[in-house]
Amino acid sequence: MLKASIDIDLLRDSITALSVIVSEVRLKIKPDGISVKAVDAANVAMVIFDLKAGAFDSYTAEETEVGIDLVKLNDILGIVEKKTLVDMELDMTAQKLHLNFGGLSYTLSLLDPSTIRSEPRVPQLDLPARVVLNGQDLKRAVKAAEKISDHMTLGVAGDIFFMEAKGDTDQVRLEMGTDQLIDLKSGEANSLFSLDYLLDIIKSAGKANEVTLSIGCDFPILIEFDVAPNACHVTFLLAPRIESD
């Protein structure tokens, strides 16, 4: 069961972050919060989502798992005015999620969790470099790279973090030193990633005050940030693009 109330801005931003790579998820509901682990259909990107009980104005839950259509949920949340409190209640017997806000009542049918892809195993990665930067800086580099190519290299060289894209004739490169970064753990790192996925991820990560990137050489990248501090934490794991010789 679940009975909770939450601010629409926090709920909407959280669900938006979750839905950039998947459209249907298994929500794991527990007394301490709601979590999701999901991978996209192409097995390129994984999302690990944690919405803590403390993010809610009120929260009462028993452990259960439900399937949710994120497209439909986002459509409903899209009409809610800012600073509105959303009341949520699960009816497990009828397999419905009831949403109440601003005098409106919506009933969203739940999906059968068994029809949704199982929770993936999260790989244990020991990546040599770690970069912490403002989300706007990451967004700026990714948007610039979009004009040049469909892929982008992220790496660390000494005390410099760089993001670079090369096209047939043009290229763009952004370098950031320790004085421009929030934090840097230097290590050998140089990996190529699809811009399609990075463009989706920065829709949410670009708003964060701090984004942590863990990078290696031709290894997946970990992209972590808080949608709201101590309330909702999101991690993306993105596989590298390996170019053949």
UniProtKB/TrEMBL annotation:
One term of GO molecular function: DNA binding
Any one Gene Ontology BP term: leading strand elongation
Annotated ranges, domain Proliferating cell nuclear antigen PCNA N-terminal: 10-101
Tagged with keyword Flavoprotein: no
Transmembrane segments: none
Coiled coil regions, renumbered to chain: none
UniProt keyword terms in alphabetical order: DNA replication, DNA-binding
Domain (Proliferating cell nuclear antigen PCNA C-terminal): residue spans on this chain: 122-240
Presence of the UniProt keyword Manganese in the record: no
Matching SUPFAM superfamilies: DNA clamp
Pfam families per UniProt: PCNA_C (PF02747), PCNA_N (PF00705)
Protein purpose: Sliding clamp subunit that acts as a moving platform for DNA processing. Responsible for tethering the catalytic subunit of DNA polymerase and other proteins to DNA during high-speed replication. Sliding clamp subunit. Responsible for tethering the catalytic subunit of DNA polymerase to DNA during high-speed replication.
Family, similarity comment: Belongs to the PCNA family.
Subunit structure: Homotrimer. The subunits circularize to form a toroid; DNA passes through its center. Replication factor C (RFC) is required to load the toroid on the DNA.
UniProt name for this protein: DNA polymerase sliding clamp
Native source organism of the sequence: Methanimicrococcus blatticola
Gene: pcn
